[in-house]
UniProtKB/TrEMBL annotation:
Protein name (Swiss-Prot/TrEMBL): SptB
Gene3D superfamilies reported in the protein's UniProt record: 2.60.120.380, Peptidase S8/S53 domain (3.40.50.200)
GO molecular function: serine-type endopeptidase activity
Ranges for region Disordered: 410-441
Pfam families: Fervidolysin_NPro-like (PF22148), Peptidase_S8 (PF00082)
Biased composition (Acidic residues): 412-428
Keyword Amino-acid biosynthesis among UniProt keywords: no
The organism of origin for this protein: Natrinema gari JCM 14663
Gene Ontology biological process: proteolysis
SUPFAM superfamilies referenced in this protein's UniProt entry, alphabetically: Subtilisin-like (SSF52743)
Peptidase S8/S53 domain ranges (all copies): 156-400
Top-level taxonomy: Archaea, Methanobacteriati, Methanobacteriota, Stenosarchaea group, Halobacteria
Length: 536
């Protein structure tokens, strides 16, 4: 077995539908009240921040703001904290010299309660310039929505949250699909996510994912699912890293099934990772825009393992010239010259991976409407499995261009069993492999090791993987058989009981490529991993 990488992959079981019970009567204030976000100081201005630092606080801490204050010297203030994602925001005086800021970073990172420190960077919407309005839509036909709509136009029980500039929730094309709770505003903290005049991006994105179709009004969205508006970008299409993280967490706590993130920042930030993993742990499918500078790097949060990264294609299924590409790309979608709603009860064309991402979010909503028992992992895998191969490179299209018709018309739970077929028995041929390592689960998310294994028997029958770890610890085991990277929420088989003795047996046909993940949930120490492959 070959060790491949060593990332962190959190996941916890979560029943998304329990949040939605009686959702029509839940007030916005009551949802915010349970969000775990601590209100910022009244004098703190919304939007991008140039003089702030985000501190990741250990999840074992019971008072995030208190731990941050204890770690921060006197020349900086704790102005905001998020108890759910475990971070606090520190503000510097505007006239603080550079060395004072360096002293703060040195001081806080020495605290055992501080996991990381990073700037509260600015995150921007990912949009290409507007084109003149026209009354023809190619995207729904391009991805087969007409066929999918014969089965479902989207259920109001499926909630798509749009983290953006806010959605004009009284727009004629959207008012029928906006969730009764409407959403929240993390910029002004007034619970009203109505966009500023001319701030069209969020309304356009929301209208693509879930604009009323076949209603004689405006355009047709990909689905008629419910929209939640989470305002975290200002009228210029930018917002702070902490506001975006809070928005993602709020959407997860509000029971969103899908969160669309048509925004991004170049680079990787632990606060964004934590927010996305928090939502994924709560059963949310996150969909992100790859970026629009035509480079070979995917912007965050789309680049996160917990997010479906979407590239953009033109109406002829060729790669859009502006679309970013890279190994993180998972799906492609139409993103050029898409017609949707904008503020002022109007309509316009826009281009960008910002437009491609809500196409995928809308299709995910259609699939979940048709198959409501799909888990987040199953939904993500189904979108991959039914995507159309455009003949582009994997770094350009991932698994392919999203296909609404195939995704809705293909049963994700086919019954392939034959009651008259006798199961094959494994013979005496056996090959074993082993590996060992050491992990520490006392950090923020716990460490992970991954391994790969290629089949060696002439006629493979089964593989049994066993894990033995240290006492007084909790290590889990995850397996994939298709060569994909296993994570705590993306795997074919798992053993995640208490303790460090885990075992998994998977059947083999001969074309599998086995990959394994060992994850330290708590405790630390050395472990031994053993794989026995048996042939017929």
């Amino acid at each position: 077995m070959t060790q491949n990488d060593h990332p962190d992959d959190p996941a916890r079981a979560y029943d998304r539908r329990s949040i939605l019970t009686g959702a029509g009567s839940i007030g916005i204030g009551s949802v915010i009240g349970s969000s775990g976000v601590v209100t910022a100081t009244p004098s703190r201005e919304p939007g991008p921040k140039d003089d702030e630092l985000i501190l990741g606080i250990s999840p074992s801490a019971t008072d995030v703001a208190g731990e941050a204050r204890a770690a921060v010297p006197g020349n900086a203030d704790v102005v905001h904290a998020n108890e759910s994602i475990h971070y606090a925001v520190v503000s510097f005086p505007s006239d603080a010299p550079a060395h004072a800021r360096e002293d703060v970073i040195d001081a806080v990172t020495r605290s055992p309660a501080v996991e990381y420190a990073e700037p509260n960077v600015t995150v921007a919407s990912l949009l290409k310039p507007n084109d003149p309005y026209y009354d023809f839509q190619h995207a729904p036909k391009q991805i087969g929505c007409e066929t999918a709509w014969e089965t479902t136009r989207g259920s109001e029980d499926v909630v798509i949250a749009v983290v953006d500039q806010g959605i004009q929730y009284d727009h004629p094309a959207l008012e029928a699909t906006v969730d009764d709770r409407i959403g929240t505003d993390l910029l002004d903290a007034d619970d009203d996510p109505y966009p500023a005049s001319g701030a069209d991006h969020g309304t356009h994105v929301g209208g693509i994912a879930a604009g009323g179709s076949d209603d004689g009004t405006g355009h047709a969205g990909i689905s008629d699912c419910s929209l939640l508006s989470v305002r975290a970008l200002n009228e210029n299409g930018v917002g702070s890293l902490s506001d975006i993280a809070d928005a993602i967490q709020w959407a997860a706590d509000a029971g969103a099934d899908i969160v669309n993130l048509s925004l991004g920042v170049d680079g990787s930030y632990d606060t964004l990772t934590a927010a996305c993993e928090y939502a994924a742990d709560h059963g949310v499918l996150l969909v992100g825009a790859a970026g629009n500078d035509g480079s070979d790097r995917v912007y965050s949060p789309a680049a996160e393992d917990s997010v479906v990264a979407v590239s953009a294609v033109d109406s002829d299924d060729s790669l859009a010239s502006f679309s970013n590409t890279g190994s993180a790309i998972e799906l492609a979608a139409p993103g050029s010259r898409l017609v949707s709603s904008v503020t002022g009860d109007e309509y316009a064309r826009m281009s960008g991976t910002s437009m491609a991402a809500p196409v995928v979010a809308g299709v995910a909503g259609l699939v979940l409407s048709a198959y409501p028992d799909l888990s987040r992992t199953e939904l993500r895998e189904h979108l991959r499995a039914t995507a159309a191969d455009l003949g582009l490179r994997d770094t350009q299209q991932g698994y392919g261009r999203v296909d609404a018709a195939a995704a809705v018309e293909t049963d994700p739970f086919p019954d392939e069993s034959d009651p008259d077929e006798e199961p094959g028995e494994c013979g005496d041929e056996a090959i074993t492999a082993s590996a060992s390592g050491s992990l520490d689960g006392s950090g923020w998310w716990g460490e992970s090791d991954r391994y790969s294994y290629s089949l060696n028997t002439a006629t493979p029958c089964s593989a049994t993987i066993t894990l033995e770890g240290p006492a007084n610890a909790d290590f889990d085991l995850y397996v994939t058989t298709d060569g994909s990277k296993p994570t705590r929420w993306e795997h074919d088989a798992s053993s995640a009981g208490a303790g460090t003795s885990e075992s998994i047996t998977v059947p083999l046909e001969g074309d599998e490529e086995i990959r394994l993940q060992v994850h330290a949930v708590s405790g630390s120490g050395e472990y031994t991993l053993r794989l026995e492959e048996r042939g017929r």
